[in-house]
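Quick start: what a row looks like.
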Amino acid sequence: MSKDPSRLPPLDLLVSFEAVARQASITRAAAERFITQSAMSRQVQALEAELGVALFQRRHRALALTDAGRQLLATCTTVLAQLRDSLAAIRGQGARELLALTTTPSFAALWLIPRLADFTRAHPGTDVRLDASFERRDLKRDGFDIAVRYGRADAAGALGQRLFGEALVPVCAPALVARPGSPLLALADLARHTLLQITAGQPGGMPVDWELWLQALGAAQVQPMATLSFSSYNEAIAAAVAGHGLALGRRPLIDGLIASGQLVVPFGQATDTARVYVVMVEPEARQRPAVKALEAWLIAQASAPTITA
């Protein structure tokens, strides 16, 4: 008895075929499907036996689709995509919404995390996965919906929607200002205090950000009593809150600490930098209402009045 030509082969074989055809490699497709190379090869052979035609031309260290293989790949690509979308929609009925956001550690710790509970309270059933890293993630490949990135102001339009710029101003713990015998009223008073910074330009020298800030104010000759350098900006700000010296506060990231009284601006004026924060949305993710809501919330939060010193 001849086989029914309309009979469908096992779905597993079709999924494996699509992976091999897309990757143009049995080895890479096997790794994607978490099976051995030999198992993947057997699945392709089983599908070819089921259909009675060759789907690939085996060349030295390469695979090429036959005409039948190209015809099957076009159908598999469309049908499997529709099937995955339908399954995702079915599974998503009544399920919790998960949003994945990536940004820098300083933006996450100082600006986003203190505010994030407001978003989750306003959107019950929506969970946020936060990735704080200096590594620039590929949103689609790495599975992220939104990124908040830090970059040059002149490139902001190419990066995404601008949230806000950045200004530098000296900050310290209130106790440091009140300490007897070590006033903090003017730039010259830095000679009695320790400056906090992420990295120093030269051992024993003036920290780079402080040097540029003082130059902008025409006070490059001012030298501190000492410097403390840290591996991250968050550590430098934590040291400032603990009263270990003065840090250059990046506003508006540190405005919450000023509002709470953990930091004060003892003197000096803010100087703008050429850096900005922008929000980017993965194009396909933008279709989801929860992603649109998070983007709008970030923009609204960034547009809220900032604290003035």
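That is the whole record. Residues 67-92 form the longest helix (26 residues). The mean pLDDT is 87.
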